[in-house]
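User: Design a sequence. Structure:
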């Protein structure tokens, strides 16, 4: 089954470059190209792609607002920011808007494809620079004793690895536990923090400092 992908970027050369490479992937189907945020929202509503590669700065509507509108009407469509900005003033709002991925345009083509596939597996995917900003915010956040009490030590370990964008297998290897155990911990984390996916859990950790305690 192919991944239906829409590309949103106001630079024609960037769009062409992405299409040129991604169309060589047998499991990826390019269903549309948008040159601004508003066009991306309209096209997503009509085409309902699985994944959107979203530029951050575009005319008419920026990528963050477009992401917010897309997630409101089509929450199952995954969005990856593909941008030149790696500062936390851009990273955090993008994740808050609903982006499950945040990559920079210097990403290697094969890594981009791997990130797209991760999104389809329900995993968040962040460029190392974006991850560093998230972890910095975590370390500076104030911790709520009540919220920390909700999670076990191992659940907080899993949450820390989750904020780094790791897959279940990578978390299992890092913590020397089974993937089945990781899934159980993640399910418990979702329930206790009242979130519905990995990105929301990571954002909650960023806001409340749960992963740093």
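Assistant: Done.
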């Amino acid at each position: 089954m192919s991944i239906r992908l829409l590309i949103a970027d106001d630079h024609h050369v960037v769009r062409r470059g992405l299409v040129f490479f991604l169309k060589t992937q047998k499991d990826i189907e390019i269903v549309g190209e948008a040159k601004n945020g508003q066009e991306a929202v309209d096209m997503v509503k009509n085409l309902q792609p699985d994944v959107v590669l979203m530029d951050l700065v575009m005319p008419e509507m920026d990528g963050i607002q477009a992401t917010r509108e897309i997630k409101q009407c089509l929450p199952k469509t995954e969005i990856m920011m593909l941008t030149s900005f790696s500062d936390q003033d851009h990273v955090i709002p993008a994740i808050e808007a609903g982006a499950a991925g945040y990559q920079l345009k210097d990403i290697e083509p094969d890594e981009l494809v791997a990130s797209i596939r991760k999104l389809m597996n329900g995993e968040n995917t962040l460029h190392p620079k974006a991850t560093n900003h998230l972890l910095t915010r975590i370390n500076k956040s104030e911790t709520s004793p009540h919220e920390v009490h909700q999670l076990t030590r191992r659940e907080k370990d899993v949450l820390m690895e989750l904020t780094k964008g790791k897959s279940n297998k990578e978390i299992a290897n890092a913590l020397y536990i089974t993937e089945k155990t990781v899934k159980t911990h993640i399910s418990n984390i979702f329930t206790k923090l009242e979130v519905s996916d990995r990105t929301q859990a990571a954002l909650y950790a960023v806001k409340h400092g749960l992963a740093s305690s």
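Residues 141-146 have pLDDT under 50 and may be disordered. Residues 37 and 66 are 5 Å apart (CA to CA).
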